[in-house]
Write a structure and sequence with these properties.
Structural class: alpha/beta
Helix content: 40-55%
Order of helices and strands: HEEHEHHEHEEHHHEHH
Number of helices: 10
Shape: globular
Strand content: 15-25%
């Protein structure tokens, strides 16, 4: 099987649509990095894709495991190195469709926490070095996988679709951990937005820059692709106009009042103790 085979996944589909079918710069099977143009500038697009033949069984469905974490880091750090002496830093677009981090004994024994931390650090270093980083959530964005691939973005854009969700774990897993039923969790989520799985509740936390409504989610047409391209270009322009490259804008959300209050109290106590 070709190492570039794009197995069916939303991440693989949107990577292909947004880059015009650009060939990946590496022969990696589960992390595809493609160079293409965004708003007239060279950009790097990165996606994690499924590989049913992955040597690590826990990472065959698009999960982010040991190999994926380190390769995400490499794909991003290559961009940092390419533009190290350039004033114009190329954008990095994380196409996000990751159902989970890879949970397994081998993953834990060989340090999946370090692999995923390596990816997080690479994205954060890119952002702090001046690279505009945009995350496009086209499917699931779950647990440590999302932290490793996309959460460090300057701007996060999501598709408005029941199949798109951002959460610490899936409903069935959350039910087992909390000793509740899925139905009980859904009832709780109706009144506690951070517990909900729909993308609009997540947007109310202030973390998303924009939510896009497409006409054909399963098979996007030219109008849908143009809408996503336009949103990426608008996000890029917004980042370039923003003198701050941190993530503080996420605290403005409707349901982030407690976070804002806690941070203000901590800052106050810190300054008083100084």
């Amino acid at each position: 099987m070709s190492p570039h085979t794009n197995h069916a996944s939303r991440g693989a589909m949107w990577l292909r649509l947004l880059t015009g079918g650009a060939h990946p710069v590496h022969d990696w099977t589960t992390v595809h990095a493609c160079d293409a143009i965004l708003a007239g500038r060279p950009a790097r697009y990165v996606a994690v894709v499924p590989d049913p033949d992955n040597a690590f069984p826990r990472a065959r469905n698009g999960e982010v495991g040991l190999v994926e974490g380190w390769r995400l880091a490499q794909a991003v750090r290559e961009v940092i190195d390419m533009d190290r002496d350039s004033a114009a830093k190329r954008p990095i677009i994380a196409v996000i469709d990751v159902p989970s981090q890879a949970y397994g004994r081998r993953e834990e024994a060989y340090g999946i926490h370090q692999a995923l931390a390596g990816a997080v650090a690479a994205y954060a270093d890119a952002r702090q070095a001046g690279h505009p980083v945009i995350g496009l959530i086209v499917g699931l964005a779950m647990s440590g996988a999302f932290l490793a691939h996309g959460y460090q973005a300057n701007r996060l854009i999501a598709l408005d679709d029941p199949a798109v969700a951002v959460h610490a774990m899936g409903k069935a897993s959350a039910a087992r951990v909390t000793l509740r039923s899925v139905e009980a969790l859904e009832k709780l989520a109706a009144s506690v937005p951070p517990m909900a799985y729909d993308i609009k509740s997540f947007a109310s936390l202030g973390i998303l820059h924009e939510v896009l409504q497409l006409t054909n989610l399963a098979l996007p047409d030219e109008q849908d692709i143009a809408l996503v391209h336009g949103a990426l270009e608008a996000a890029l322009a917004d980042i370039l106009e923003d003198p701050r490259r941190d993530l503080s804008s996420r605290l403005r959300g409707e349901h982030r009042g407690a976070s804002r209050k806690v941070r203000a109290l901590l800052a106050s106590e810190w300054e008083a103790a100084d």
